[in-house]
Design a protein that fits this description.
Two copies of one chain form a homodimer. With 435 residues, chain A is α/β, with parallel strands linked by helices. Chain A has three domains: 182 residues, Rossmann fold (3-Layer(aba) Sandwich); 144 residues, Nitrogenase molybdenum iron protein domain (Rossmann fold), CATH 3.40.50.1980; 39 residues, no CATH class. Helix content of chain A is 46%, strand content 15%. Chain A has 17 helices and 14 strands. Chain A has a six-stranded parallel beta sheet with strand order 1-11-10-9-12-13, with helices on both faces. In chain A, helix 10 crosses helix 12. The termini of chain A are far apart. Chains A and B meet through helix 5, strand 3, helix 10, strand 13 and helix 15 of A and helix 5, strand 3, helix 10, strand 13 and helix 15 of B. Chains A, B: Catalyzes the sequential NAD-dependent oxidations of L-histidinol to L-histidinaldehyde and then to L-histidine. Chains A, B: Keywords: Amino-acid biosynthesis, Histidine biosynthesis, Metal-binding, NAD, Oxidoreductase, Zinc. Chains A, B: One of its GO terms (cellular component) is cytosol.
């Protein structure tokens, strides 16, 4: 049974806080094992990758076969059906079009003192994308990570994807090709992250690593952070549906279950002012669960982490949504554009009954890598900006330095940083002598 | 003696790699102590803050005196000289003007299918700024952290600053006032970070914590990351000066020493194609060091971490600069605008002989919180964006869903996510029945 809350209840606040504080995931303590794996890859390079891949993925590689060859990729891709290819191409095109609009602009201006100021955006030179193996090997995630990197202008873009027993998802390789990935290495786990961060004889190091992974991958990303940039460590996925009267309970049930079927620790929450709808959705979820392929997972997620919250009105729904700061927020009301702007903490918002969250997972255009675990309060989904960085630029003229230099000198003195002050003073003295 | 390298030498590459790999800072292992402090603040709140502040800062506080009162702040600020105030105001105005241009734009558009797509930027609701006590209590850093937060639209902005023995820098309080900070708490160390992240009876939790600190502060920020957002953990500061023939060796020496005087682990590097200039700078550094107040620190930094690299030409200088990815890059050449665009990895660039790096520390306008330790390859200096987050927005019309929904359904099926597919299919079926 999911939690049932009602804002009119006296104990609502305590229950809502319990929901917010719910710990849905136990962190596995794999840090020592990961540290050893990283040290091994740093010291033995390719040889360590070959050994670790034999042990963990039951696959015998050599330096020469760490990467898929062009022929291997072509052969795998040839197995993809035309329908799957068309769907993936449509997704890639839409994701590319959306992210192309995110490219930031350089700026440069001259202020009243004559100083030229501004900034310049440049791409990270090389990026590595981790793609999990097995069941969680999602071609859509390849597109969502690789396309923003390419749009940013990353020169070298590689994938690490474990292939347990040699098995690979042909759609992953097709997605890599559609996104313009330069190489796909059949390595996984902490050893793959170490190879991407530090490099080996065969694999050049990258500057940024993104992409989801298991506890070993997450721990390895934390460890190499600083040496390279990483994306956020994603937690279990979440959806919040705000629904008004008159919405279809079956559609809402399916949207909740789309989240729940990912993972037992996923969380699906419905907030509605309509008690009848709340009951209808609960019934529809139970009904749909009966025939769902992943009913064990989805059922456990819904029972343990799900919630239905009855509110007085939609304003209250928006206020609660801001406290939850959901990864995905669906607004199914008569006028979703009116409520949307009141929801200020959310990774992605889906407006109206014809925008199920699953659209955003695949073909909507926006990124599906989004902040989880209430981190939408302070962070954003993956974007082109994650593969770029900004260099600030300043140029003083003699006049500009004469105008603002004395203040810099004064502040340097107040901070007891004498050389800072002298570096300005030496120039001002020259200008004064010339003046 | 700083390292002397020459790209014409056979062993240059090995020496340059040694320079790049130089470990300038030993990480203190304070993680266990920090974990205990955080747990104490989480369980005992204000009482823990009072006890820890008595122990570490020799200062007796109560819940009521954790924050400076308005009267205390006014009394401290009254001690600031008019000249210092004017300098700080000029700095604040220039930093505000620069950062105001960083505010990102929301976007919304309708694509060919009729889908409305876009994104919306919103501010983090509450931010906490850590300001070190004692010698490293820099008013300029208060401005550099607090002003971007205010420009972003952060509603509640507070400072934590330890006041050992009760001592506070009046300029820090003035900077806080000029930047529009809402409260200043006289707490420091890991306990301050814990209070900002988790809250106590007196201190409401924030969503984002920025600002420099010692090993305890850095370890605490790492630990609360995820619960709140943090800025990057800054390493020792660095400057790279690229200088062409004809530049003033004394100015360059002072710029190198501005960096070196921060910290023994700071790094100052000169790259020049002009051997005579290289010698003249080395001599000028030695001469300036004789009379510098912080000559012990600056001398150790220059001797242990400094370097002079002789190159064939300025193109080679830019290429090496990109491998170093310096926090600060000064380009002192006849045509710095020509070389600037070739330098693609740098936190901040200072163009021309009249733009000493110290200008950027105080009054230039750009932020002085910048990526260290080669992380300019993948990250940027502090900006307004660090206090904002982006929510992506999508709205499908029935026509849009009919156009792209089948591809989403197909991809969901290929990823074995049945409910995802059904959530789209249920809507498409309705449309087909209606159509």
């Amino acid at each position: 049974m999911p939690m049932h809350l009602n804002t009119r209840d006296a104990h609502f606040e305590a229950e809502f806080r319990a929901l917010l504080g719910m710990k849905r995931e136990e962190a596995e303590d794999v840090d020592q094992a990961v540290a050893a794996i990283i040290a091994d890859v740093r010291s033995r390079g390719d040889a360590a990758l070959v050994d670790l891949t034999a042990r963990f993925d039951r696959l015998t590689l050599t330096s020469g076969t760490l990467a898929f060859s062009k022929a291997e990729i072509a052969a795998e891709i040839a197995r993809v059906s035309p329908e799957d290819r068309a769907a993936l191409e449509l997704a890639a095109d839409r994701i590319r079009a959306y992210h192309a609009r995110q490219k930031p602009a350089d700026e440069s201006w001259t202020d009243a003192t004559g100083a030229t100021l501004g900034w310049r955006w440049t791409a990270v030179s090389a990026a590595g994308l981790y793609v999990p193996g097995g069941l969680a090997s999602y071609p859509s995630s390849v597109l969502m990570n690789a396309i923003p990197a390419r749009v940013a202008g990353v020169e070298r873009l590689v994938i690490a994807c474990p292939t347990p027993g040699g098995a690979v998802n042909p759609l992953v390789l097709l997605a890599a090709e559609l996104a313009g990935v330069d190489a796909v290495y059949r390595i996984g786990g902490a050893q793959a992250i170490a190879a991407l961060a530090y490099g080996t004889e065969t694999i050049s190091p990258v500057d940024k690593i993104t992409g989801p992974g298991n506890a070993y991958v997450a721990a390895a990303k934390r460890r190499v952070f600083g040496r390279v940039g990483i994306d956020m460590i994603a937690g279990p996925s979440e959806v919040l549906v705000i629904a008004g009267a008159g919405q279809d309970p079956d559609w809402i049930a399916l949207d909740l279950l789309s989240q729940a079927e990912h993972d037992e620790s996923a969380q699906a929450i419905l907030i509605t002012p309509d008690e009848a709808l709340a009951h209808a959705v609960a019934a529809a979820v139970a009904k749909r669960l009966e025939s769902l392929e992943r009913r064990a997972i989805a059922g456990a997620s819904w029972a343990n982490n799900g919630a239905i919250i009855l509110v007085r009105d939609l304003d209250e729904a928006a206020a609660l949504s801001n406290r939850i700061a959901p990864e995905h927020l669906e607004i199914l009301t008569d006028d979703p554009e009116a409520l949307g702007p009141m929801c200020i903490h959310a990774g992605a918002i889906f407006l109206g009954a014809f925008t199920p969250e699953a659209i955003g997972d695949y073909v909507g255009g926006p990124n599906h890598v989004l902040p989880t675990a209430r981190s939408a309060r302070f962070s954003s989904g993956l974007s082109v900006l994650d593969f770029m960085k900004r260099t600030t630029i300043a140029r003083m003229t003699p006049d500009a330095l004469a105008a603002i230099g004395p203040s810099a000198e004064r502040l340097a003195t107040s901070e007891s940083l004498q050389a800072h002050g002298l570096s300005v003073r030496a120039r001002l003295d020259r200008l004064n002598r010339q003046g």
